[in-house]
Amino acid sequence: MIIVGGSASMDLAKELASILECDYIQAATTSFPDGECYTRIDRESLDDDVVIVQTTFPDSKLVEMFLLQDAVRRLGARTITLVIPYFGYARQDRVFKPGEPESAKVMCQHLDMNCDRVITVDIHKEAILNYFNHPHKDIKAAAAIAEYFKAKGIDIVMSPDIGAAGRAKMVGDFMGLPYDHLNKTRLSGTEVRIAPAEADVKGKKVLIVDDMISTGGTIVAAAAALREAGAAGISVACTHGLFLNNSLERFTGASFDSVLSCNTLNSPVSHISVARLIADALREAKEGKW
Ligand code: R5P
User: Fold this and answer.
1) From the alpha carbon of 164, which atom of ligand 1 is closest?
2) Which of 7, 157, 212, 269 makes a 20 to 30 Å CA pair with 238?
3) CA-derived radius of gyration, the chain
4) How far away, in angstroms, is 242 Cα from ligand 1 center?
5) Is the dihedral angle over the CA atoms 187, 192, 195, 198 positive or is it negative?
6) Does 266 fall in a domain?
7) Please, what is the angle between helix 103-112 and helix 59-74, to 10°?
């Protein structure tokens, strides 16, 4: 097996190659003067099973993924597995208003044209993966998050809304802790309202988990509701830390004590690694288990 790291996911790809004790190739990706993507894999041939690791966000990284798929195929890869740590466009997973595209489906169809297997991590909606014709697996980062926080004195795991309650349950179950959810209403792209916490969090250390932090509006409101309800400590962990609009800097003064994300996207707080979980899925695929 050979791991090819795209420019969006180099560190994760290297870690994966080291865990699996296999060759690592860094794609040499630059831009043409007009901004278009140029990439090259510095090999004469690739007569092996090849795994491309590349988050498909922002758009330039998605284009790089398409080009890497073609380059790898031309070098003679026996099979191509795509590891997409953060799958862009997953939130436009259906036509909400007439005239819109089904963006997630479009991305799957195009990625599917040149691969044999796909691995994602906490994709926004798992049903999206059914648009792939090839075998696919969505890895749950809950185990990695639970492992990271297991000795940090957490008392209860909470999600900011009912939609993420399953994630809070998974993390809580791994840690042997209770879990609950808050109730969120989205007011606009950047504003949310979170109802006062019903769970008894007085004097407790709470871990808020979510699939992604985008603008940060959700976790800021969730932490404020929990602090209001008397939480003694609040840590936040997400799988995908987009941290748009400089949200990491704007978190100074927020009600939570710390914020961390997994390494599906690069950020100064991407300290929770999902590499072992991805490595397990790749080993299982090799053994024909999926
Ligand atoms: C919503 O469905 C997601 O699970 C996140 O809660 C949401 O995307 C976070 O967005 P923001 O950080 O902008 O509030």
Assistant:
1) 4
2) 7
3) 20
4) 10
5) positive
6) no
7) 20
Count of structural domains, the chain: 2
Q: For a ligand 1 pocket test, name from 211, 236, 250, 256 the mutation site with the most ligand atoms within 8 angstroms of its C-beta.
A: 211
pLDDT, one tens digit for every residue, the chain (290 residues): 999 999 999 999 999 999 999 999 999 999 999 999 999 999 999 999 999 999 999 999 999 999 999 999 999 999 999 999 999 999 999 999 999 999 999 999 999 999 999 999 999 999 999 999 999 999 999 999 999 999 999 999 999 999 899 999 999 999 999 999 999 898 887 788 998 778 899 999 999 999 999 999 999 999 999 999 999 999 999 999 999 999 999 898 899 999 999 999 999 999 999 999 999 999 999 999 99
> Which residue in 121, 117, 92 sits closest to 104, CA to CA?
92
Where residue 245 sits, what CATH number does that domain have?
A: 3.40.50.2020
Length of the chain, in residues? 290
Q: pTM for this structure?
A: 0.95
Q: Ligand 1 test: best mutation among 213, 219, 265, 269, most atoms within 8 Å of CB?
A: 213
Q: Which of 278, 280, 283, 275 is nearest to 15 (CA)?
A: 275
Q: For ligand 1, what atom is nearest to the CA of residue 220? A: 14
> Same domain for 6 and 136?
yes
Asked if 189 and 60 sit in the same domain, the reply is: no
